[in-house]
Amino acid sequence: xxxxxxxxxxxxxxxxxxxxxxxxxxxxxxxxxxxxxxxxxxxxxxxxxxxxxxxxxxxxxxxxxxxxxxxxxxxxxxxxxxxxxxxxxxxxxxxxxxxxxxxxxxxxxxxxxxxxxxxxxxxxxxxxxxxxxxxxxxxxxxxxxx
Length: 146
Prior knowledge:
Blueprint: H1 3-39, H2 45-86, H3 106-143
């Protein structure tokens, strides 16, 4: 699989997760708010456990998302810094690109592709824990009995 196809697959994965999250999140919110309304001022032990789980999951997913994005951003930063040492400079002898002195050419295209891949990876790292929790909650809550 080429780098272009890998990037397209990652973008497609991000789009799929975003769509699934946009469908699962309102479903989970509706089910939980409905459960809160039915519980009233005297929630059962099962309801209390679900409400505790709800708040705990949100905090956990936030931290997992934040750490994943931060880690991926740091990785992308170091990859970009390392690529500066492997990209031939604009004044490399024998360069046939007349625009190379202005930074236009294969090196620039490769760096733009690398940045697109880095942004996609950071967004994927951020949405993955939230997506996983929301989709699993939607499945679990849709089949549970009140």
